[in-house]
Amino acid sequence: MDKFASIRADISLTETEDSWEKICRGIVSFSEFIRASSTNGTHEIITKARELHRPIINAMKSERTRLSGPAIDLISTLASELGTDFEPLLHLFFPTLLLLCARTSKVVVGRARSCILCIIETTQLVTVIPYFIQAIRDKSVSLRTVAAESTLACLNSLNPPDLEKEERTKDIEAFIKMSVRDANAEVRKIGKQIYQAYELLLPNKAERFVL
């Protein structure tokens, strides 16, 4: 059995009291496989991550933090190694990361938040922004807070020419309007910071924007 076949077999197990540690070992081994393979190109990594995305998502959602943690870290590894090539995997994993930000566990929320910020920083993909528009409408305060922090991170770290495209500026302006009116004071505070960052980054666009 080749190395990846063994990884696939472990990650694809159904989680039980007896199997979760083996799933976890498979996930850690897959992270190591990704790091070792990235120098040979990204196609193989993307193909294998797609193949295993369902069991990886199941592990991310696990109530066992000793399993969900390494699974979330795996997504950070994928983003860091793939960079902009992470885009074909964004729609597979990003919605789950946002869902985890609505959990009651501060540990899980913290890990998911860190992973989201890692994706923003390492992939430079502006296509993350529409996901935050959906999240700011959620009833979960922790999710709305992470969405606001992440949108601010986008304005502070992504390429301005990508952000100033009309579709993206509409998204940013829609997010600002919702966040500054949010029921939660922390979200409103970050919403104002997003607006200030928007004014600095794209003054011509901000000049025509009415809150």
TrEMBL record:
InterPro entries to which the protein is assigned, alphabetical: ARM-like, ARM-type_fold, CLASP_N_dom, HEAT_type_2
Top-level taxonomic group: Eukaryota
Record's keyword annotation contains Endoplasmic reticulum: no
PROSITE patterns: HEAT_REPEAT
Keywords: Cell cycle, Cell division, Cytoplasm, Cytoskeleton, Microtubule, Mitosis
Keyword Electron transport set for record: no
Subcellular locations according to the entry: Cytoplasm, Cytoskeleton, Spindle
Gene3D superfamilies assigned to the protein according to its UniProt record, in alphabetical order: Leucine-rich Repeat Variant
Pfam families tied to this protein: CLASP_N
Ranges where the CLASP N-terminal domain occurs: 14-208
Main location: cytoplasm
Positions annotated as HEAT repeat: 128-166
Family: Belongs to the CLASP family.
Protein name, UniProt field: Clasp N-terminal domain-containing protein
Organism: Lentinula lateritia
